[in-house]
TrEMBL record:
Keywords: Cell inner membrane, Cell membrane, Membrane, Transmembrane, Transmembrane helix, Transport. It is a multi-pass membrane protein. The keyword Amino-acid biosynthesis does not apply. Residues 60-240 form the ABC transmembrane type-1 domain. The chain crosses the membrane at residues 7-28, 67-86, 98-120, 126-145, 166-187, 222-241. This is NitT/TauT family transport system permease protein. InterPro entries: MetI-like, MetI-like_sf. One of its GO terms (cellular component) is plasma membrane. The lineage of its organism: Bacteria, Pseudomonadati, Pseudomonadota, Gammaproteobacteria, Enterobacterales.
Amino acid sequence: MNKSGPWLAIIAQRLTLLAVFIIGWWLASRHLPAFVFPGPAKTWQAVLQLWQSDTFFQDVGITFSRVLSGFLLATLIGTPLGLALGASRWLAQFFEPLLAVFNSVSSAIWAIFAIIWFGISDVTTVFVVFMTALPLILTNVWQGAKTVEAQYVELARSFRMGKLQTLQKIFLPTILPYFFSGARLAFGFGWRVSLVAETLGASDGIGYRLRQAGDLVQTDQVFAWTLLLVALMLLLEGGLLKPLERHLFRWKI
């Protein structure tokens, strides 16, 4: 039986979809001015210009470091808080309305607050990513902790397992899928909101370059940055996050 058949079919489908997208893009660009809707060829030239520029890798690195800092901070704070809410019904009932408030506040509002509080600095973007990612990670870990069977916890106590052992042997295997699901969402949202924060309150990074290109009506540069961002997210998703998920949960297969 040929195992490569399904993969070849998927690749063919994706290439067909890509071809349809590019053809549709090209046809639409023929009826609009280039400064409004640049075509694939002009956008590709802009991609090459960005790739060869002196600041491209610096801007990508700065944005990525801000996203990663906010994401890690949200993970370090959100994970133990989620465990605490899952372990205590009283805490969950007390803090649930506050969590709902945080979930309802837009990232753009956090960006405005961050500019008022921190000015144009790295802290502004890190803060916005943190405030966006924290509720997602906290909520998913909380939901995962709620699914831990009480009988397993009681069994761990009967074996006189310490809190750290109980966390490692009972809670961690249960909440890990929930945490990973929340972390993937948080990182993806964090990456997007970082661009909003950098557009409003940064002097470097991808968001700043997008705002700069928009102010100068360099629409081909905006399209080029958009394509590069999509390619980078697909690379992170397919090259890092999905393989990591398969490795962590290989015991489920």
